[in-house]
UniProtKB/TrEMBL annotation:
PANTHER family: RHOMBOID-RELATED PROTEIN, RHOMBOID-RELATED PROTEIN 2. It catalyses: Cleaves type-1 transmembrane domains using a catalytic dyad composed of serine and histidine that are contributed by different transmembrane domains. This is Rhomboid-related protein 2. GO terms for biological process: proteolysis. One of its GO terms (cellular component) is membrane. Involved in regulated intramembrane proteolysis and the subsequent release of functional polypeptides from their membrane anchors. Known substrate: EFNB3. It is a multi-pass membrane protein. The active site is at 181 (nucleophile), 243. The chain crosses the membrane at residues 67-86, 117-142, 154-171, 177-196, 208-227, 239-258, 270-292. Its main location: membrane. Belongs to the peptidase S54 family.
Length: 296
């Protein structure tokens, strides 16, 4: 009848099956996109034996918020803008007076102010310096933190920063130090070691591309570091030794932190070996700076 036809054409309410089916389909599409993202991320960041555990644990998309990398990057950018905009500069592109007078910069004659061995990471010498470090640490650090814990990434980063300044104070004791390259290179070193050690477990194209990317990025940044050290006529030279210190910290401490995704870190003998080695290096550097350094 006509009444029956009218009833059939009426829109269904909230409990209808069609809208619910559409919602379920949207949820399925979102879930599938999330799974694809997680699979791609695991292929880039983890060896095969750790991927299954990661995918089993991953319940959210993204699986974690890269709080440490975002916080440290924003802090470094804020400090750079402060010195570029409010301090007297000869030119904005290459910072001069502001950073040399900064209480954050590492200076050999002020090394008794111990915080400078860490705080120098917030101060950068120019636009290409800050942009280079930010791009590298965000491109690499965010994926690392999405897979590993923020604590692990933070410890590796800070270990590289401290190792960089201590290495510079020993092997280039008369030079100042600015920039977060020690921390960036620690992330690179840890990631690189895992890429090389687990190369056979990676899809060959992924492995080759990852190693090539690291080599190109490191070569470019290291070229800028050499230029700042030897081509500048400034009386205060900026050391590039922090790059080496950061890489070594990454290839030891960073490698152990990142490879232990599916294992308990404290039960890994390699972890304790690297930690003891790092502590011995720090103690030697402190003794050197107090008693043996040629710096004033």
């Amino acid at each position: 009848t006509a009444n029956d036809i009218e009833l059939e054409q009426l829109p269904e309410g909230r409990d209808s099956r069609w809208p619910q089916a559409e919602a379920d389909q949207l949820d399925d599409n979102e879930s599938e996109s999330c799974k694809k993202f997680q699979r791609s991320l695991s292929r880039w960041m983890l060896p095969e034996d750790a991927r299954k555990l990661y995918l089993a644990r991953a319940k959210y998309c993204p699986p974690a918020t890269p709080i440490f990398m975002i916080f440290i990057s924003v802090a470094e950018l804020a400090v750079f803008i402060y010195y570029a905009a409010w301090k007297p500069q000869k030119q904005w592109v290459t910072l001069d007076e502001g950073i040399w007078r900064s209480p954050l910069t590492y200076k050999p004659d002020l090394r008794q102010e111990a915080w400078r061995f860490i705080s120098y990471m917030f101060v950068h010498a120019g636009v290409e310096h800050i942009l280079g470090n930010l791009v590298m640490q965000l491109v690499l650090g965010i994926p690392l933190e999405l897979v590993h814990k923020g604590f692990d990434v933070g410890m590796v980063y800070l270990a590289g920063v401290l190792a960089g300044s201590l290495a510079s104070s020993i092997f280039d004791p008369l030079s100042a130090l600015v920039g977060a390259s020690g921390g960036v290179y620690a992330l690179i070193g840890g990631y690189f070691m895992n890429a090389v050690v687990n190369f056979r477990q990676m899809i060959p194209l992924f492995g080759v591309f990852r190693i090539a990317f690291i080599v190109i990025a490191v070569g470019t940044d290291f070229g800028f570091a050499l230029y700042r050290r030897f081509a500048n006529d400034d009386s205060m030279k900026v050391s590039f030794v922090a790059h080496f210190g950061g890489v070594v910290a990454g290839m030891t401490v960073g490698y152990v932190f990142f490879k232990a995704y599916s294992k308990k870190l404290l039960k890994d003998p390699c972890f304790w070996l690297c930690i003891v080695g790092y502590i011995v290096f720090v103690i030697f550097a402190v003794i050197f700076n107090i008693f043996l350094s040629p710096a004033p």
